[in-house]
Structures are given as C-alpha cells and as structure tokens.
Amino acid sequence: MEQFWQWWQHLPTRIDPVLLQIGPVRLQYYGLMYLAAFGLTYYLVIRRVKTEKHWTATTEQVQSLMTALILGVLIGGRLGYVIFYNPGYYLRHPLEIVLPFRFSNGVTFSGISGMSYHGGLLGVIIAAWPALRSQKGLFLQMMDLIVPAAPLGYTFGRIGNFINGELYGRVTTKPWGMFFPLAADNRLRHPSQLYEAFFEGLFLFALLWFVKNRIKVPGAILGAYLIGYGVVRFFIEFFRQPDDHLGLVFASLSMGQILCLAMILMGLIWWRTMIYLLPNSKMKRSQ
C-alpha cells in the first residue's frame, strides 16, 4: 500500500501537459479536453433531440446555438478570468488577453492561460439570449436540452487542469494528497481538480440527467443547475488553494466562493420566476 501512495502522491510530477511541441508552439492536453467536452455535450443534446419525441427544436437549431455557446464559453471564460481574478496585471499587459505570448520579460510563447468558469457561464447566457430572444419558448426548451448534458463536459476541463498541474488544492496531511510541481513549497496538497471533476462533473451530471424529464416546468432545470453547481463548487473551494495574487478576498471566502454565492442566488431567483411568475410556467412539458 505504501508503494501505491508513493506513486499516487508523485503522479503530477510524472505527467507532461504537452502532447506535441514544434519549435516554441505547444499542443497541450488541456486544449484537447475542451474539444472533448464540447463534442460530448453536443452528442448528448443531439441524441436527446432524436430519441425524446417531445422536443420541437431541430438539429439545425441545436447546431447553430451550440456554435454560439462555444464562442460564449471561450470569450466569456477568458474575459471573466481577466476581470474577476487578475485585472491589474492585464491592464498593464492588455495584449496578453488575446495573444498566446507573455511580454512581461521579453516575448515568450505561453498559450492562452487563465479561464474563469463563472465568466464562461455569463458568456453562454449573453451568447444564447440574442440568438433566441425572438422565440422565448425555444430559449427555455434549449436550456432544458443542454443544461443536463453540460456538467459532463466539466469533467474533461478539470482533468485538463490536473494534467497542467494548476488549480491545485490546499496543504493536507491526507495520504491521497499530491505533490504539484507548480506549488513552490513541495508539500502534499488536495487534488482539488479531481474533486471538481467528480462533483461538478460526474455527480452533477448524474443528478441533472436523472431529473431532466421529471422537472415539468419549462426552464426550471436551469435554476436547479445554478443552485447545484454553486453549492458543490462553494464547498470544494475550501479544499482549493486560492490564487496567490488574490488570497481570501472577504470573510475568509475566496473569489470563487463569492461568485458561487451569487450563482446560487441567481438560481433561486430563476427557479422562483419559472415556477411562480412566468405566465406559462404552469404548462407542463409532455412526455
């Protein structure tokens, strides 16, 4: 058993995040994780459209919306990181927001580093609403289609974080802690990326997939998703190392936890709106 824990604890030091390098340009596993996440989400949504007969959305409408959502995730996630987590640095180095190079000490290829989940969520909302604003019933239907499938994609994203050795956890004495090369102190830390891959990804996916056709009110599952993700992420943040340049920002809470509290509040408001205030909320979806 001792040999297993030794292997486990040093696993991050044995993983090379670069799949292929040609000169200064690197292809990293993290980018492939994004492709896998988008591809799997798209497959699950299209499968639902084809096999669950109560949907009126077409595959063409799904394809168009998914394209907008992917752009929303990428642009929103990047800008969210810039605004929420490191605005001072990017005010001094604005070209690094969109270019895969660092200019702070000469010019070095770095890839696009830094994405925010909450920024990506806002990007998705902003991208989806204009595309569907003229057909509000379609908007709610698309949310009901896509939301249950989306968390499974997070599993790949968090595994990508783990392969990169980034977003590691706080110091621990537990035997399942790991040594992460990017941590300067060489101490065992929680593999918080794996916690997130399981709870934000697999667990939340299983929960929403189970209730997806049991919640009859159109659009309400989006509220369940916002609340569920916010609660899960809020507690996992207690095991995740806060960003060095931010630390704990308010009342021993990290920036991620503050954004999760806002997310939970949004989810509660959305749920109440769908069930009690929306004129058509009493109309149940047929099976």
Task: Note down, in words, how this protein is organized.
This protein has 287 residues and is mostly helical. It is 59% helix and 5% strand. The strands form two sheets. It has a two-stranded antiparallel ribbon. A two-stranded antiparallel sheet has the order 3-4. A hairpin with a 5-residue loop joins β3 (101-102) and β4. α4 crosses α6, α8 packs antiparallel against α9 (192-211) and α10 packs antiparallel against α11. 34% of the residues are buried.
Q: What does the secondary structure layout of this molecule look like, with pairings?
A:
Elements: H1 2-9, H2 11-14, E1 18-22, E2 25-28, H3 29-51, H4 59-85, H5 87-92, E3 101-102, E4 108-109, H6 117-132, H7 136-146, H8 150-164, H9 192-211, H10 220-236, H11 255-277
Quick structural gist:
This protein is mainly α.
Instruction: Report the helical percentage.
Output: 55-70%
Percent strand equals: under 5%
Strand order in space, largest sheet: 1-2
Q: Main beta sheet: strand number and arrangement? A: 2 strands, antiparallel
Helix and strand sequence: HHEEHHHEEHHHHHH
Kindly give the count of domains: 1
* E-strand count: 4
Question: What is the first-to-last residue Cα distance?
Answer: 51 Å
Number of helices: 11
Radius of gyration, in angstroms, nearest whole number:
20 Å
Low-confidence stretches: none
Structural classification: mainly alpha
User: What's the average pLDDT?
Assistant: 85
| Global geometry | globular
